Amino acid sequence: MKLKYILVFVFVIFQVKNYGQTSNEDILFSVAEEPVYVSEFLRVYNKNLDLVQDESQKDVDEYLTLYTNYKLKLKEAKALGFHEKPSYQRELGNYRKQLAKSYISDSKVTEALVEEAYERISNDVKANHILVRVDESATPADTLAAYNQVLKLRERALSEGFEKVRKEVHNGKTIYGEELGYFTGFKMVYKFENVAYNTPVGEISQPFRTRFGYHFIKVFDKRKARGERTVAHIMLTLQNKDSLSGNPEERIQEIYKKIQQGEDFEALAKQFSEDKNSAPRGGKLKPFSGGQLSVPIFEEVAFGLDSIGVVSTPFKSKFGWHIVKLYGKKPVAPFQEIKPELEVKVKRDDRSKIIDEALHSKLKKRYNISNEQPALDYFTSILNNDFFARKWVLPEDFSGDKPLVKIGKKQLNYIDFGDYLVKNQRHNRSRTTLRKIAESNYETFLNTNLVKYQEDNLEYENEEFADIVGEYRDGLLLFDLMETSIWNAAKTDSIEVKDFYEANKNKYFIPERINAVVASSNKQKTLKKVSKLLEEGMDLDKIKNLVNSNNKVDVIFTSGIMAANHQALPEDFVFAQGISKIQSHNTGYVVVQVKEILPKDMQSFEDAKGTVISDYQTHKEEKWLNTLRDKYSVIINEAALQTVKEQIKNQ
């Protein structure tokens, strides 16, 4: 599904809403007599200028071809009725609903919570807590008993010592006394987080309630968050299949000795690290912050390096053996940089309740909704104890047609709230008054309908929202069309795909490779000795023991089948059987023993299938676009096109 949304975005970059063009505007081109104006094309071109990866797409003629193709596909999708498919309507509706969440909120309250969240993630708190469990649905008597119990425990903690009491009372069932260590914003429920950050170091908080029960905490320390680290690593997997490399632990120690001897970390990572993603970059990883990695020991080692350039000793994780080098230390990102991410988090956790309350208040003002609701007297009068047993029904003489509340242009009647009450009955362990049931249910009913009304009318209230929905609507339409017409071709056109392979099989081949041993060192003199021993036919293990003596690693060997771009080989290495001259590679030198040259060979259909299908889809799309051009005439206004080129040139 993620891939689908990425591809929809690719389609969306061509879609921009037409803002009230008049018949007097210049038409750039038309598709089946449907005009596309110069102003629209210029907006699209300029909007997406920085998004395109292919420089050719910045050429006006090339971009015009892409845009006419886009319009042709859109025309065909609508002609085939793709916009009427239930699956399309459902997915568009889901997207619209998800997008609406970003536009339905109280921005001032959200902003304040985001700023508070930033302050929290910028600082860590170390605290322990004692919790007396009590369910949210507990009876008033049980709730009071839990509260009185937590008060007594707090009094003991103040007089006897928090840690002593915590350890004594913990039973893991009704009372928990837990060490929490350091934590930061979003790691605890919001109420707990608030108390932790607002309690001074060394003090014990007042009791407070969360959905788990009653707590009190002791704060032991507060510190600045550890921020971000940038490191590189050399990694050897635990399942090392290269028998000439020996045990992974032994090999990582060899590499570490070479680093201690002054050899370049990045060069060694490029040549020996088995993390194929980072090895070409000298082992460099993307920056990460505390708690972000799934390998705690790696994180602890990385944050334990205090000086730029320092290298860790080898250590083992669940993925293999590592050596880590520190490149950068960075505090928590600036507020503006991390703000979008924080907004998402704020709207997902308990803070969202505060945002919701502010939104409901704002909408009541916008739609002139009174806080008084006289109809609640009537609903209280028709409720009875059957409601607690989920057996309550509306009375036969229920006044369903009476107006209840009007939101904008939408009138809600008694029957709407009456049906809501019937559907939302539930068993209650602690019975409350019928009046409170009517009031709390009406509040939820009203808030739900306020938000729904705004959501249903967002296109009329917010132009930006309308534009984005329109863009996605067309992008999703084209995705469905392409998936049906082109991308599923491999499933339905298996014979045609094979025929395409046969007609183009000279394009699909395995490149020339070598079966070789590569000796790597930063000393030419040592490699001369290795080269001579290889010529004499000495066993590699003996060579290794001979040249790597006195607890010192001068040479590391790599062996196997290698293509020209293998990380162990120098650039432009010429394949020739025998032992090569000593050549520079990275910041050191290598000598290569080529045992066998494996010639370039044709790939079978099965081996090349993935590439063949991709090429076949491109081929089919080109043919399909030609048929669309025959079906829907495209007429270019050359004079207008020249004007467009001049405007873009002078931008």
TrEMBL record:
Q: Does the keyword Isomerase apply?
A: yes
* Signal peptide segment: none
Report keywords, A-Z.
Answer: Isomerase, Rotamase
Gene3D superfamilies registered for this protein in UniProt: 3.10.50.40
- UniProt-recorded Gene Ontology molecular function terms: isomerase activity
**Which PROSITE patterns does this one have?**
PPIC_PPIASE_2 (PS50198)
InterPro entries under this entry? PPIase_dom_sf, PPIase_PpiC, PrsA_foldase
Ranges of residues in domain PpiC? 122-221, 226-328
Is the keyword Transmembrane assigned to this protein? no
Domain of life of the native organism: Bacteria
Q: What is this protein called?
A: Peptidylprolyl isomerase
Q: Which organism is it from?
A: Hyunsoonleella aestuarii
Supply the source organism's classification: Bacteria, Pseudomonadati, Bacteroidota, Flavobacteriia, Flavobacteriales
